[in-house]
Design a protein that fits this description.
This protein has a two-stranded antiparallel sheet with strand order 1-2. The protein has a single domain, classed as Up-down Bundle (Growth Hormone, Chain: A). It contains 20 helices and two strands. Helix content is about 75%, strand content about 0%. The longest helix is centred in the C-terminal third of the chain and has 35 residues. With about 475 residues, it is mostly helical.
């Protein structure tokens, strides 16, 4: 286990005198704001265990874990057209495969895994989940029918629910509250951008050269190696403070739901995230098909241009969003939600212009600009949730957020977009997908409204 001058023994932890004096909350004798409940018998915050160089390493590992989950999710988007051709299925069925079916199993597994993350060894949860979804991704490449592919994809969805909630929970224990915004941005949108780049860029290249099955088979290999590395490198702060089992310290799940449900800011952020993800999921899954059918580009061109452009825009937008959230919220915590609302509103007309484009170059420029603006918001909303959920409900709060945009956003977005495209195909032909994706932008309007409503409630509901 990584150390910082402290001595770790079986079931106990003895801080060095330097760590003890640095960590005790001055003048109050109580843990500082944001101290994990698992250090409740001491006045030592968990983030004082680690030096900055260690935090960078841990964040890098968690970044790779979450990027792997996004890679295994997004790689399917660039493979939808080859799968459609081989199995002769409709856009609605592709929406079921990439959206609702994935979301349902994710929802079923999400809360039990998050509950485990709030009480158990998060390092173990992440390692098991990562190895599992990597195996299931490889099995997708062996499917001999559309329904076999769907079943394997369900396995990916169930196991990927064990990635982001425990990862966010660990970040909250590794970093003090005033230094979390950038790590959260890197872990959420940064990892999403990297995963999307690998999924579309590398996945599209492999599919173009060797077929869609090879892309899925090879996508599962890195995750198995990363699972072993994660188990060896990441520390579990709960073990250091001597709380290997924590069931008795957690509120009943019904109480946790009730406490979170009473926080208007949290509920509005859930609604805003769900509505915005309906649009973003539809776009992320169907834009490669839109480019192939409507702009008449090849799969190789999609992977070589659009994947890099959008991933770069998402990454820069996420880092800018994390930086802005950290700076602006010091003056007014409502900026966590204001930022998300402003970014969402600003992205709508740019997305519309991108979808109206007639050339690849104009589409790439406009879509990248829209993605940059849109990516500024999510890191701020994650920071808002950490500020109001309380330490005892951190993983559950993030898991419920994920469920809102997985079950509603990811579940409905691709399915609705595919169904609208099929409905207009007889009238518009290959242009039906363009019209469908334009209609999906309407969901961003209630999303922005919900974020602005969340801002009104934030100052009264801080609990960190």
């Amino acid at each position: 286990m990584w150390g910082d001058g402290e001595i770790e023994q079986e079931g106990t932890w003895q801080p060095s005198s330097a760590s003890r004096s640095a960590a005790v909350d001055r003048g109050s004798g109580t843990p500082p704001i944001g101290v994990s409940q698992f250090s409740a018998r001491t006045t030592i915050p968990t983030w004082s265990f680690y030096a900055d160089r260690q935090r960078v390493l841990f964040l890098a590992m968690l970044f790779l874990v979450t990027a792997s989950s996004y890679f295994d999710y997004f790689v399917l988007s660039v493979l939808l057209d080859p799968i459609k051709q081989e199995f002769q299925v409709s856009d609605t069925m592709l929406g079921l495969l990439s959206g609702l079916g994935f979301a349902l199993v994710y929802a079923i597994a999400g809360l039990p895994l998050a509950r485990w993350a709030d009480r158990g060894n998060r390092r173990t949860i992440i390692s098991i989940a990562l190895a599992g979804w990597s195996v299931m991704t490889a099995l997708c490449g062996l499917a001999q029918s559309f329904w076999q592919l769907t079943a394997a994809r369900f396995g990916v969805g169930a196991l990927e629910a064990g990635a982001l909630p425990p990862a966010h929970s660990l970040v909250a224990d590794y970093f003090p509250p005033d230094r979390r915004a950038t790590p959260i941005a890197i872990l959420s949108m940064g990892a999403s951008s990297a995963g999307y780049l690998l999924g579309v860029g590398l996945g599209g290249y492999l599919a173009a050269k060797h077929g869609w099955r090879s892309a899925l088979l090879l996508a599962g290999v890195p995750g198995l190696l990363l699972a072993a590395a994660t188990r060896l490198v990441l520390p579990e702060p709960r073990l250091r403070v001597g709380f290997p089992t924590l069931d008795s310290q957690l509120d009943p799940l019904s109480t946790t739901f009730a406490q979170l449900g009473r926080k208007r800011s949290y509920v509005y952020i859930l609604l805003g995230s769900a509505f915005s993800t309906v649009t973003s999921s539809a776009l992320s899954m169907f834009l490669p098909s839109f480019m192939i059918r409507t702009l008449h580009v090849t799969l190789g061109q999609v992977s070589a241009t659009w994947g890099f452009a959008v991933s770069g825009a998402d990454l820069v937008g996420a880092l800018v969003g994390g930086w802005l959230a950290g700076r602006l919220s010091k003056h007014d915590v409502r900026w966590h939600a204001w930022l998300a609302g402003i970014a969402t509103v600003a992205a709508i007309p740019i997305f519309w212009l991108a979808l109206a484009s007639r050339t690849l170059s104009s589409f790439l420029f406009l879509d990248s600009a829209a993605e940059f603006l849109f990516s500024i918001g999510p890191p701020a909303t994650f920071c808002a949730i950490h500020a109001v959920c309380g330490d005892r409900r951190r993983a559950i709060a993030i898991a419920i957020l994920q469920l809102s945009f997985i079950l509603i956003g990811t579940g409905l977005g691709p399915l609705v977009a595919g169904a609208i495209s099929d409905a207009f195909r007889s009238l518009l032909g290959e242009q039906s997908l363009r019209s469908s994706l334009m209609m999906m932008l309407a969901f961003l309007i209630p999303a922005a409204v919900a974020f602005f409503w969340a801002a009104r409630a934030l100052p009264q509901e801080l609990e960190e």
